[in-house]
Amino acid sequence: MKKGSIKYIIIVLACISLSACTKLTEEPYSAISTEQFYKTESDALAGLAAAYAQLVEVYNTAGTCASDWSADQTFPRQAVGRNTITLFTYDANYTVQRSFTRVHESPQQLWNSCYAGIEKSNWVIAKVAESDINEATRNAIVGDALFLRAFYHFTLTKNFGDVIIKIEPSEGIESAFLPKSPKAEVYNQIFKDLEEAEAKLPSWSASTVKGRSSKETAMGLHAKAALYAENWPVALQKAQAVIQSGKFSLMENVLDVYDVTKEDAARVENMWAYEAESMPPAKSHQLLSLYGPPNSDGPDYGVETYGSIFAYQSFYDSFDPEDERRLLLDTTYVNRAGNVVSQKDISPATTQAVLVKKYMDKSSLGALGANNIPILRFADMYLIAAEAAARATAPSAEAYQYVNTVRARAGLADLPNDLTQQQFIDSVLQERSWEFFAEGDRWYDLTRTNTFMQVIPKAVNDLYPVRTPQQKHRYFPIPQDEINANDQLEQNPEWR
């Protein structure tokens, strides 16, 4: 047995630290063994907060950018190796990671962070269930940990395909090294965890702790995972259950979903988000600084921005001019001198750069903004229900109503009511592209439908004139470091 340093396997509770938690504010612990820990409610909440803290590592950058840079909506400036993802020139050694110090932008960060989150969730599930904490609190904490374990496994399988299912805490090195399981088995475990989480978690309310899950959030994640697993009846059932719960609604103005000053009101639509704060010790993310104009020249975008990510002109052109979501993109901006900067001057790298406005915070603390990153939005429930209903049988009146609800909020007319099944599904997928751009969603729609090989070569510009993905790029390769450390772990067949 190799004794490498796979980062997910040995998570010592002595290292629990809540400094990385965004809006969960439990007291940190140190030098505490698993036998001593989880005896009190504060212990259990601290362990749960540590499991949530891995979202900081997932969403610092890789949680959205590793997938978005692969897709057809946004692209990175060709700097410090980021173009290896867009050009599909990476390998299992993740040259994008080796070539610069921004390891949090690499798909390897997803692997490391998700397994660390799973490990911490496993300790909570195993130990809190045995504690003397009152039943309601115990169920809520264990339900939260089950939800997180399902989310981390879902993130892994949609990025890497067949992955390791880890449902027991690592008591030692030997028990930590496990082989991969087929993707279907991973989804079965996800569904099992979410069913149990739904039974234990309280329903969402205005008093739900910011960043925490709820019964409806677990149902929503279940709907999305079932859609990816092509279990159309379950995807439809779970999405409908969230819609019919009456707990969430679409904000009247789509722009308000991303207004950092309205994030509390936006939780009526943002069912679950990575809750960021710019003030230490809480953690933020890089998206504000990456998406804003170069040289911190656009004060409305943030105090410190680099002009490192832009939208493709072709994506901008795909919007109906009446679509209010297009207002979250821009081909001009007002600089610090009060002058309008035109598209040809937005970026020194390309004349075809389009600015993304979803992560603006004019009051940011340097490069750190307080913008939340949506992970699961109520709009997704409508579009999941619409797609699942159409795939299960044919586009029904109800399926049309779901997708048209999202379109109406964007200021668009209803879809034509005589679409074929495939035309309707294609329309829903296009709606998803317009609705969730720059939120780390589009690439997975292309890979789960296996359409990325046809779509990506059309998403080009003067900076990336040719993009040629291969079938093996449907999933990222498992990091070679992990293969080297675990002799039970095999590389994805296409990457061997």
Keywords for this structure?
single chain; about 500 residues; mainly alpha; globular; disordered N terminus
Mean pLDDT: 90
Helical content class: 40-55%
Overall shape: globular
Number of helical regions:
19
**Strands across the major sheet, in which order?**
1-3
Outline the structure in words.
The protein has 19 helices and 8 strands. It is mostly helical. A hairpin with a 5-residue loop joins strand 5 (333-334) and strand 6 (340-341). The radius of gyration is 22 Å and the shape is globular.
Please give a quick description of this structure.
Helix content is 42%, strand content 5%. The protein has helices at residues 41-59, 62-68, 83-86, 95-98, 107-128, 135-160, 173-176, 183-200, 215-228, 232-245, 263-266, 287-291, 313-317, 378-392, 397-409, 421-435, 442-448, 452-455, 480-485, and strands spanning 74-76, 270-274, 309-311, 329-330, 333-334, 340-341, 355-356, 373-377.
How would you summarize the topology of this molecule?
Blueprint: H1 41-59, H2 62-68, E1 74-76, H3 83-86, H4 95-98, H5 107-128, H6 135-160, H7 173-176, H8 183-200, H9 215-228, H10 232-245, H11 263-266, E2 270-274, H12 287-291, E3 309-311, H13 313-317, E4 329-330, E5 333-334, E6 340-341, E7 355-356, E8 373-377, H14 378-392, H15 397-409, H16 421-435, H17 442-448, H18 452-455, H19 480-485
Antiparallel strand pairs: 1-3, 2-8, 4-7, 5-6
